[in-house]
């Protein structure tokens, strides 16, 4: 998000940092912040804010794992990759 704002010349300042998704969603809905949220979490208030921003840049997720993982670890990785693929919106 920061790279996108910088590249489009939109001035910004950090006013809130939170590990709570609920707090991030509330700040964005109130118009005091921006964040990249999955489409399934957007409300009408978020969508109104979204219309004033340029579209987000493409992202890539990378998962690093030790080659010596046991069967359960490998299964967990497969499940995570499958879940991420299910959530991706093109």
Question: How is this structure best described in words?
Answer:
With 90 residues, the protein is mostly helical. It has four helices and no strands. The protein has helices at 2-7, 21-29, 44-50, 71-87. The longest helix has 17 residues, at 71-87. It is elongated, with a radius of gyration of 17 Å.
Low-confidence stretches: none
Query: How much helix is in the residues?
Result: 40-55%
Largest sheet: none
Based on Cα principal axes, name the global outline: elongated
Terminal CA distance: 18 Å
Question: Number of DSSP helices?
Answer: 4
Which structural class do the helices and strands define?
A: mainly alpha
Order of helices and strands: HHHH
Beta-strand percent range: under 5%
What's the pLDDT, averaged over the residues?
A: 81
How many β-strand stretches? 0
Report Rg.
17 Å
Using brief descriptors, characterize the structure shown.
mainly alpha
Detail the topology: elements first, then pairings.
Blueprint (H helix, E strand, L loop, with lengths): L1 H6 L13 H9 L14 H7 L20 H17 L3
Write a brief structural summary.
The chain is mostly helical and 90 residues long.
């Amino acid at each position: 998000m920061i790279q996108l704002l910088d590249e489009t010349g939109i001035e910004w300042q950090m006013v809130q940092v939170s590990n709570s998704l609920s707090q991030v969603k509330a700040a964005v809905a109130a118009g005091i912040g921006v964040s990249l949220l999955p489409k399934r979490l957007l409300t009408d208030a978020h969508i109104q804010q979204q219309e004033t921003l340029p579209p987000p840049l493409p992202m890539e997720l990378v998962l690093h794992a030790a080659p010596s993982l046991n069967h359960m670890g490998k299964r967990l990785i497969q499940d995570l990759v499958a879940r991420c693929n299910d959530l991706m919106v093109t």
